[in-house]
UniProtKB/TrEMBL annotation:
This is SET domain-containing protein. It comes from Cercophora scortea. It holds the Pfam family SET. One of its GO terms (cellular component) is nucleus. Residues 29-138 form the SET domain.
């Protein structure tokens, strides 16, 4: 919300100074505000009126309270989240008339990313002449149980695209076979989302959230309870399994609290055990996995008794896996973002900094390194209880 208030402030400031371009002024009248939908939520309505009053009286004297509070839902409904290289969560929000008019699809054909202060648009698949451009309003990897409430409460529509129809069929079959209902799945899902959000926030800003959410044992226990009884997660097909992002977050939390081995196992399972093997957000998630968990694993004390067990991957194995994953991530970054973009440059810098400090015997593009990488990855997968089919190939 903070970044949206900042955008609103800037728009009002320009509007006051009559610097607002005509196209943007028209857009504000043209775009969907969902004001009436938001009005159903008294808390949100109260919030936007209070923020509107603050902007009108303190920040921008002379602005109509009603205008400020009406523009806020417009920002909320039409903003584009700003995601940068190596950041999974949005670092801010932008408002752009053209991008705001692009419709949603859960199986989109384009994605947007930021290059300096520009929004870049790139295709995700072949687009035929005359075909509508669509982007996904939710993080694409979310399963239907998480996408639908997001679209319903954030964008006020029910999506019935082909992907939603297929996943809806699968989830109903899953509920019926276990004698549960979709409602139970949804409630457990909401609990999972709250757990995940609070865990992320507690890790970023300790002392504000209830202490339990920064305690990885509490988070793990709650996760296991939710995953077994209401969700019966072991029975879900991989592509609609809602757990990967939760496992990845929990893994990061554990690593941050010094439980490097268990945290790395969770993070590896969270990232690798899913059907999505490529794509722009895959790049960022892989960077999180490698730079947080594997990097911490690789700098542990190699004389520690834990490494006496030959089944436990060594810190050297972690070096190899880390460099191999970044090698693949770099080629994915070229594919999705293009050489010469800020995004690619950041990934390249990360790659150089990481690989240079690790005395690799072979060049990363050699057959010898590929063999070393395959052996190291097999060891990690076995140790983390991940089926071999989920391994990542060095080359796409
Ligand atoms: Zn859909």
């Amino acid at each position: 919300m903070n970044s949206m208030v900042m955008i609103l402030y800037r728009i009002l400031q320009k509007k006051n100074a009559s610097q607002i371009p005509r196209i943007l002024a028209n857009a504000i009248d043209f775009l969907e505000t969902h004001y009436d939908d938001y009005a159903q939520d008294p808390v949100f309505l109260k919030d936007i009126h209070e923020i509107g009053a603050v902007i009108s009286t303190i920040v921008q004297p002379g602005i109509n309270v009603e205008l400020a509070s009406r523009l806020l839902p417009l920002m909320r409904a039409n903003h584009i989240p700003i995601r940068m290289a190596s950041h999974i969560t949005a670092v801010g929000a932008a408002f752009n008339f053209v991008s705001s008019t692009i419709n949603h699809s859960c199986d989109p054909n384009i994605f947007l990313f930021f290059e300096g202060n520009q929004i870049r648009v790139r295709s995700l698949k072949k687009i035929e002449a005359g075909e509508e451009l669509t982007r996904c309003y939710t993080p694409e990897h979310l399963c239907i149980v998480r996408r639908q409430p997001w679209l319903k409460h954030g964008d006020f529509f029910d999506c019935w695209c082909r992907r939603c129809a297929e996943e809806d069929k699968e989830i109903r079959a899953l509920a019926e076979s276990g004698g549960t209902t979709l409602g139970e799945f949804t409630r457990a899902q909401v609990s999972l989302d709250i757990l995940l959000n609070n865990t992320r926030s507690a890790a970023a800003t300790p002392n504000i959230y209830p202490p339990g959410f920064s305690d990885c044992n509490y988070v793990e226990q709650t996760l296991v309870e939710l995953a077994t009884e209401p969700m019966r997660i072991g029975e879900w097909p991989g592509h609609i399994d809602p757990m990967p992002s939760v496992r990845l977050t929990l893994g990061g939390l554990m690593v941050g609290q010094g439980q490097v081995s268990r945290g790395t196992q969770y993070a590896l399972r969270g990232k690798l055990v899913c059907r999505r093997r490529s794509g722009p957000s895959w790049v960022n998630e892989m960077i999180e996995l490698t730079m947080h968990s594997l990097a911490a694993y690789s700098v542990q004390d190699s004389d520690s008794p834990e490494f006496a067990d030959p089944r436990v991957p060594t810190t050297r194995d972690a070096d190899i896996l880390l460099c191999g994953y970044l090698y693949r991530v770099r080629s994915e970054a070229v594919k999705w973002f293009g050489v010469g973009t800020d995004f690619y440059t950041r990934v390249q810098d990360l790659f150089n900094a990481t690989t240079e400090g690790r005395n690799l015997v072979h060049r990363l593009d050699s057959a010898e390194f590929e063999k070393e990488f395959t052996v190291a990855q097999e060891k990690f997968l076995k140790w983390a209880g991940i089926p071999a089919e989920f391994g990542i190939r060095l080359r796409s």
